[in-house]
Amino acid sequence: MAERLLSVENLKVSFFTRDGENQAVRGVSFHIDAGETVGIVGESGSGKSVTAKALMALTPPPGKMVAGDIKFRGESVSRLSDKDWRKIRGNQIAMVFQDPMTALNPVQKIGKQMVEVIRRHRGLSQSAALNEAIEMLRQVGITEPERRVNQYPHEFSGGMRQRVMIAMALSCQPELLIADEPTTALDVTIQAQILELLGRLKERSNTAIALITHDLGVVAQVCTRVIVMYGGMVMEEGTVEDIFYRAQHPYTKGLLHSLPKRESGFKERLVPIEGTPPNLLDPPSGCPFMERCPHAMEKCAALPKVTEVSPSHRYMCWLAEGGEEAQSNERA
Known about the structure:
Elements: E1 4-17, E2 20-33, E3 37-41, H1 48-55, E4 63-72, E5 75-76, H2 82-88, E6 93-96, H3 100-103, H4 110-122, H5 126-139, H6 145-148, H7 158-170, E7 176-180, H8 188-205, E8 208-213, H9 216-222, E9 225-230, E10 233-239, H10 240-245, H11 250-257, E11 306-310, E12 313-316, H12 319-322, H13 324-328
GO cellular component, one term: plasma membrane
Keywords: ATP-binding, Cell membrane, Membrane, Nucleotide-binding, Transport
Protein name: ABC transporter ATP-binding protein
């Protein structure tokens, strides 16, 4: 049985604004085992990036974790002090942010930034930390790392800066790497290289990866399990095979139908999901997908229970109970 690395129970994160409480994450529960790659997917505003930052206690103000518990290796980390979090963050749990240009200090050389992180968490000497930084840059495919450590972030391309961020995150040998949209704004060739790199590094070090993305194609390439989020909640969770071949939730099916099918050999019109996501300043009391769902019923105004299809596959939808009644009440 796989070793449980991270457990999230009933996580709720809100942003307290002038307009009111924006309930960005509303009761999310999931787990990540050692060595596995889990994709957290959903369109913009689904709560996936807010969830990722909450896992490392990096929710920006005016945001706040208002309920729930996060356990790492069985120990609760939800209420740790900043001092205690600094021992975990970057060391046992590391993060690759969406925009490396804002995550890297533009006025410090790459080598100095990497050495600072390595020395803080691993206690190496200056020279040993520099050698480690050079080796990590080499491992992520940056040529001439001895020269590149003396360059500034603006001297690297977008793909290279992302590689630097991955090298920095992995330099402290974390047990869990959280990658928040690591291939966004990169061209498809560089995307493929970054995904291949993550896969190789995971195999080499057995690091677990939480991959935050809106791209199901990326998930299909590198993930073993998938968590589908919408309206700040988990709609469906399962293995890659469960989600891509046995999807149950109408939202998951909508995401899959909106993907272009390259193997078909002829032009096909994409099928969009009509409507817009719910307003989380005033979230619906029932299923958050109700207003956009082609199968919506009256009882969708109440929150559905979670149905377990198999030990690896669960989803939250009234269709699990509705059967023929649900089909006969489909919207036109």
